[in-house]
């Protein structure tokens, strides 16, 4: 018989063991339940694997379980793939991190995370900046019109000028978005843009009963931008960006 570990989904406020349905994460369907310590508990399911691959099916099971739990409870979500050797290890984990877990559960009680990605909706981002920044256009033309071809150093300088303008525009747009949305949320985290056409990648901590107000703020913000920008608004999510858990 294989030894069964405990796959961790997150931490909740609870004093007794509870059942949270089933999951297909791992080799077979199994129950999701809680292991309590004082008034906090780890939400887990049994698993015989020592490691779990980040395949689509497993990621869907992990995210689905977190989504279902957070409908009823405040949850400190764990990242995908955390497996504990067993109950005693879980209780040690809870005991050693009790104060941190308890404080964060109090801070995040009744709150969810909303996401916003702002994108440049243009075919070529460099050409878009050239059209809208005369200094970049002039230097681009100078670099590529030299009789014997431009030097490598000048091309590097052109790339650096573009990157500087990209950063400057992101900072300006971030200031606009945050000024409007700050009164509609509790906290904001700016994540690094994932690619060149991404203007902003923001996470917002919002009261569950304040989502409608926040959504109105999103539409108000979008109205400050022209058709060269798109807004990808998503959520609610478990507050991954506002939880600090180091295992």
Describe, in plain words, how this protein is organized in 3D.
With 247 residues, the chain is an alpha+beta fold. The protein folds into two domains: 5-109; 112-242, ACT domain (Alpha-Beta Plaits), CATH 3.30.70. 40% of the residues lie in helices and 28% in strands. The chain is built from seven helices and ten strands. The strands form two sheets. Strands 1, 2, 3, 4, 5 and 6 form a six-stranded antiparallel beta sheet that branches. A hairpin with a 6-residue loop joins β2 and β3 (30-37). α4 (125-132) crosses α5 and α5 (134-144) runs antiparallel to α6 (152-181).
Give the SSE map:
Layout: E1 5-13, E2 19-23, E3 30-37, E4 40-47, H1 56-72, E5 76-77, E6 83-84, H2 87-96, H3 98-108, E7 111-120, H4 125-132, H5 134-144, H6 152-181, E8 187-191, E9 198-207, H7 211-222, E10 229-237
Antiparallel strand pairs: 1-4, 1-5, 1-6, 2-3, 3-4, 7-9, 7-10, 8-9
Helix pairs in contact: 4-5, 5-6, 6-7
Bin the strand percentage: 25-35%
Major beta sheet, specifics? Answer: 6 strands, antiparallel
The average pLDDT score comes to 91
What distance separates the N and C termini? Answer: 28 Å
How many strands?
10
Shape: elongated
What is the rounded Rg? 24 Å
Q: Examine the secondary-structure arrangement and name the CATH architecture of the largest domain.
A: 2-Layer Sandwich
In which range does the helix fraction lie? 40-55%
- The total of helices stands at 7
The residue ranges in which pLDDT falls below 50 over 5 or more consecutive positions are none
Overall number of domains: 2
* CATH third-level topology of the largest domain: Alpha-Beta Plaits
Helical/strand content category: alpha+beta
Provide the succession of SSEs.
Answer: EEEEHEEHHEHHHEEHE
The CATH class of the largest domain: Alpha Beta
Instruction: Tell me the CATH superfamily of the largest domain.
Output: ACT domain
């Amino acid at each position: 018989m294989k030894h069964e570990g405990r796959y961790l989904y997150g931490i909740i406020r609870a004093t007794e063991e509870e059942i949270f349905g089933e999951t297909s994460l791992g080799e077979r369907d199994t129950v999701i339940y809680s292991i309590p310590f004082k008034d906090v508990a780890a939400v887990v399911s049994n698993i015989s694997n020592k490691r779990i691959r980040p395949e689509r099916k497993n990621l869907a099971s992990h995210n689905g379980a977190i989504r279902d739990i957070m409908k009823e409870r405040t949850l400190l979500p764990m990242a995908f793939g955390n497996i504990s050797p067993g109950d005693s290890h879980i209780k040690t984990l809870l005991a050693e991190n009790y104060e941190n877990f308890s404080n964060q559960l109090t801070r995040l009680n009744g709150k969810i995370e909303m996401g916003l990605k702002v994108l440049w909706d243009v075919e070529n981002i460099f050409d878009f900046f050239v059209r809208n920044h005369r200094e970049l256009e002039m230097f681009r033309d100078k670099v590529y019109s030299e009789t014997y071809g431009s030097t490598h150093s000048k091309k590097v300088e052109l790339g650096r000028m573009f990157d500087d303008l990209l950063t400057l525009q992101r900072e300006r747009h971030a200031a606009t978005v945050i000024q409007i949305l700050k009164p509609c949320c509790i906290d904001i985290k700016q994540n690094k843009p994932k690619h060149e056409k991404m203007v902003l990648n923001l996470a917002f901590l919002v009261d569950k009963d304040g989502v409608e107000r926040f959504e109105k703020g999103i539409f108000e913000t979008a109205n400050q931008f022209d058709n060269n920008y798109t807004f990808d608004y998503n959520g609610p999510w478990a507050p991954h960006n506002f939880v600090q858990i180091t295992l």
